[in-house]
Every structure is written in C-alpha cells, then in structure tokens.
Amino acid sequence: MTGPAPSSNLADQVAYRVGLSFPVSRKGAVASAIARLMTRRGIGDSRSFLDRLGLDEDLTDDAIAAITVGETHFFRGPDQFQLIRQTILPELRRRSDGSPVWIWSLGCATGEEPYSLAILCDQEGLLDDVRIRAADISRRALVTAKAAEYGEWSLRKTDHKLKERYFTSCEGRFRLHERLRRQVDFAHVNLGADELPAAERGLADFDLILCRNVLVYLDASAVRRTARQLFACLADGGWLLTAPTDPPLWKYAPFETSVTPAGVVYRRMMGHPDTSKRSASRVPSIRHQTKKPLARIPPARACVTDARKTLGDNAVRAIAQQIRSRFDIGETRDAERLAAQAIESHPLSAELHFLQGLSQMTHGETDAAAAALRRAVYLDSDLAAAQFFLGVCLKHRDPQAALRALENALLFCVARPPRERIALISGVTAGHLAERARREIGEIRRHLGSEDL
Ligand SMILES: C[S@@+](CC[C@H](N)C(=O)[O-])C[C@H]1O[C@@H](n2cnc3c(N)ncnc32)[C@H](O)[C@@H]1O
User: Fold this and answer.
1) pLDDT per residue over 353-407, tens digit each?
2) Residue 276's closest CA among 238, 305, 304, 242?
3) Which pLDDT value is given to residue 451?
4) Is 372 exposed, middle or buried (0-12, 13-18, 19+ CB in 10 A)?
5) Which candidate among 19, 31, 55, 239 keeps its CA 20 to 30 Å from the CA of 278?
6) Looking at 174-178, 224-228, 293-297, 396-400, which range is the least confident one?
C-alpha cells in the first residue's frame, strides 16, 4: 500500500478535531479510511492533515465521511414506520389541539428518512399538520438531501406504487415531488459539539425524534451526552425512536421506556418537571385544514414500563431459573413459551430476551432468535453471550452484522481476566468465549474471502 500507514491515534485526533467520536470497534476502519483519504489528497504527514482540517471545508467533509457511515434508504426499518403510522401519529394528533406536530430526523444522511416521513404523513392525510426538520453533520449529505433526487438503490425497499405516486423518474433517477420536498427543512447539526436543545434554531420541543443508526457509531461518552440532549429536545409526551442496533439510552436520561414489536421506544413523560414551554420560534402560523377524522387505532401492544422498576426484579431471576431448567432437560419449546410469557411482564429484562433467543435458535428459528438476541443486546450491550449468539445466528444471513456482534463479544472478553465467568452462560469463562468468538470470526472471514474487513 502506498501513502501513510493507518494510525489509530490519528483517527482519534481527526475525530476530535471535527467534533466526532466512534466506538473502539470501528477504529481500524476509520484509520484505514483516513489513510486512504490522505493518499488521495497527496497529504504525506499527519501534522499537515490535522492542520488543514477546519480550514479546508472540502477536506473536513471528506474526513467526516471517513468517520461516519451514511448508509440509508427510503422506509428503512418498516416496523418503526408502521408504529409511527398506527400509534404515534394518531396519538399525537389526538392531543395536539390543532397545532402542528413537530418531527425531527436527526442524522438524516441524504434525506431518505425525513422524506419517507413526509410520504407517510401524506398517505395519512396529515402532511399539512406536521413540520419535519432534518439534520446531519455532513454538509455534503445535506446538499444531496435538499436536491431530493435519488437512484434505484435508495428506493430499493420502496413499493412500486409509491414510487409512481411520489416521484418523477428520469433516466434512472427519481425526483421527489416538490410538494413533499418543501415540507422538510434541513439544518447542519453536530450532535457531539452543538448545544441542544437550541430553540433559537427551532431545534427544541419535538413531538417525535428519529435518531436511528447514528448512536451506534458514537463512543460511550457521546452516547450518554446525546441521550440527555435528546431527552431535553422532546416536548411533553414526545417520542424518540432509535434503531434496533443502537445502544440503549434509558440508563442516561429519565425516559419512559417501552418495548414494542418495533423495538424499544423512548418517551418523555407528560409533565416531566423541566419541560420547557413550546418556544415561539417553532410555532409558525398553523395551517388549519379540514381533516378526515383519524381512526382511533389502539396502541400497538406496548408494555410501558419504567426500566429501573423492572430491572433488578427478583421475580425475573426466579422465572429465568425456571426457563433454564426446562432448557437443560431438553424441553426447549416450553422454555421458549415461558420466556415469551415472562417478557410480557418484564419486557426490559435482557436475560429473558436472551433465553427466548437461545430457545428459538435450538428450533432453527434463526430470524426470530436474532431479533430476540438483538433485543437482549440493546437492553444491555455488555452481554457478551448475547453478542456471541447473535453473531452465530447471523453468520449466513448477514455476515457483516455477524462480524460486528462477534467482535463486540471478543472485545468484551479480551478486556477481562480469562478465568472470569461470563454472565448468562454457566461454566463459560471470558477466555473460552473469546476463543469461540475468534474461531467464528475466522470462519466468516474465510468464507467472505477477506482478512481485511
Ligand atoms: C447510517 S446514517 C443513518 C441515516 C438514517 N437515520 C437511517 O437510519 O437510515 C448515519 C448518519 O448520521 C450522521 N452523523 C454521524 N455522527 C453525527 C453527529 N455527531 N451529528 C450529526 N449527525 C451525525 C452521519 O453523517 C450519517 O449521515
């Protein structure tokens, strides 16, 4: 390879300069991307690279692109869009007293997410009743977002009829109709560095915030700070959706946490003490319109529970023990049934989701098992056992995601004394699990034909 050798230390410094962070697991990838960028730009040493950051806007944008991941598409996470359609929007409309509903797509990348929200609102006859804001750290992504013109790849999961209804196609490109495009406004925001809420910029008091697939790329301290900021940006009773693979936030701010079929959702309780008044800056003239009355759709089967009340519950321990005994004597169907029942009362127990996933794995129900193990992981990202089995579950279907999960398990294990016992799987030590994880990782890499992922 020509050009500078990847330096993980440089990666940290670059991230710091642009106000970003990344988890340890991405350090190698970020270092390589920065090395490639230096080669492309003919910059031979780290010092001049760092000096040019901030002065050269184009280079800064390239550095941001090297650190972040901009992958997105229309209607990504269909279960969450369903939840918004069936539960969140109807509820927000019921209590909105005619004022607009404010939605924020934070980490919007090239705009597919906020425009999907606009399309959904239009389908529900609510487009004039909502205000959609979108924000991202990447100025380059925001330019693309504002243009609202997309290729097939962005629309790969979009229904053919929707494409026809909302886009004008020309030579393989799809331009979103102006009526929807102008419904979304974009702002530059750096979650790591900007003070939020920022009422003067209209970035406060949101009824619904989507911050999906962003937190997964931040380091632990940035996640904590962001959780508090997002909480403060929510209006009374407002909702926050993150992605299933994002780290859990309920530990870091007083969210009311719910587990729904679409994953974990967070809310700011009505009347939370430091709820600020709606800022005048975000209340423009309200365009009243005659609306068709919204069907009263019952909330999705959500178990709204205060996380802190549920966790540490001794009852969970006892049920988990019962499930394990069934599992150990081979009654895995029973174990699965018991786990599913117990989850209804204790939706925030990572252990129960883990046991459910394990039981499903033994029946070859890989998709269901992966979903259960993912829930366990986002309820407690330190559960190396759940990360490990998630990796095993995904290795054929989604090898990259499998690698991420297995690497997380490995990182966790190697940071511990080899004889330390691993939570949730009896008799297994950190050394043992690390070895198993290494073997699985090696196998996947060989299968993918690459050692440099
Ligand atoms: C993987 S995309 C997610 C897009 C969309 N939310 C989705 O789920 O499809 C992540 C986006 O987060 C943005 N991002 C990363 N760190 C950020 C930060 N500190 N502040 C604002 N945006 C950030 C990136 O630029 C990127 O566009």
Assistant:
1) 999 999 888 888 888 899 899 888 877 777 899 999 999 999 888 888 899 889 8
2) 238
3) 42
4) buried
5) 19
6) 293-297
DSSP three-state, residue 353: helix
108 Cα: distance to centroid of ligand 1 (angstroms): 6
Phi, psi of 168 (to 5 degrees): -105, 125
Structure tokens at 333: 């169907």
Q: What is the pLDDT of residues 234-248, one digit of tens each?
A: 999 999 999 988 888
For the segment 413-437, the average pLDDT, to the nearest whole number, is 87
Q: How far is the CA of 329 from the centre of ligand 1 (A)?
A: 46
Phi and psi (nearest 5°) for 209? -120, 130
Cβ contacts of 220 within 8 Å, gap of 6 or more: 23, 247
Q: Which atom of ligand 1 is nearest to the CA of 211?
A: 6
Q: Which of 250, 243, 347 is nearest to 303 (CA)?
A: 347
Examine residue 247 and say whether the peptide bond preceding it is cis (omega within 30 degrees of 0). Answer: no
**Alpha-carbon distances of 68 from 43, 72, 123, 153, 220, rounded to whole Å:** 21, 12, 32, 19, 16
- 434: CA distance to ligand 1 center in Å? 31
| Beta strand segments in 269-398, E | 303-305
> pTM here?
0.64
Output the ligand 1 site: residues, CB below 6 A: 20, 68-72, 76, 107-109, 113, 136-138, 141, 189-192, 212-214, 217, 243
Token pair of 166 as six digits? 């909302």
pLDDT score, position 109? 97
State CA 276 to chain mean position distance.
26
Residue 234, pLDDT score: 97
Q: Whose CA is nearest to atom 2 of ligand 1?
A: 70
